[in-house]
Fold this sequence. Notes:
Elements: H1 2-27, H2 31-47, H3 54-68, H4 126-129, E1 145-148, H5 149-155, E2 160-163, H6 164-170, E3 179-182, E4 191-195, E5 197-198, H7 200-208, E6 212-215
Parallel strand pairs: 1-3, 2-4, 3-5, 4-6
Amino acid sequence: MAENKAEAAEAVEKAAPKKAAAKKPAAAKAPAAEKAPAAAKASAAEKAPAKKAAPAKKAARKKDAEASRPGVLKVHHLRPVPGANTPKTRVGRGEGSKGKTAGRGTKGTKARYQVRPGFQGGQLPLHMRAPKLRGFKNPFRVEYQVVNLDKLSELYPSGGDVTVTDLVAKGAVRKNEKVKVLGTGDIAVKLNVSVDKVSGSAEQKIVAAGGSVAVATAE
Length: 219
């Protein structure tokens, strides 16, 4: 029994230093007390009002600007707004921006020297897509100067002979051009008409009034 007690006492002595060593780190927890001042600083910073130094600087700038303004506005005081006048972009000057192809892209009509007016990127242009008039112009068409019966009744109120030369002299037609008489209007005097061509209605009215019609055979 005595031996057992001695062994138990030795075991207690050996275990006691280990417990003390284990308890030492717990006693060294002082940083928790050091964190308290940091939290106090944060709360104090939140409660403190923000500094308003900006309005003072703005006021100083306004005063400087007012002091720098001229008393009398003159022509040389006028200046363009900064950024209004920008330098012209010089293209094709090196391998930088707008340098190689100068903003024209690669190949194609629009990358060449000049684009003709009406170019639509290669598609069929408008003047070729528009419908065309059918038929043709007759190269043998004969144009006549027209004189109506109402005009002849004014030029010849008492009747008489009507010729191309006489009509040219009266200013009714131009010389060296063919003349044709049409049947617009009425005539009540006797006329002997000798022109290049006469319409059917005009011939009927002239003959009904007692006149005659002579048409030139050579046209």
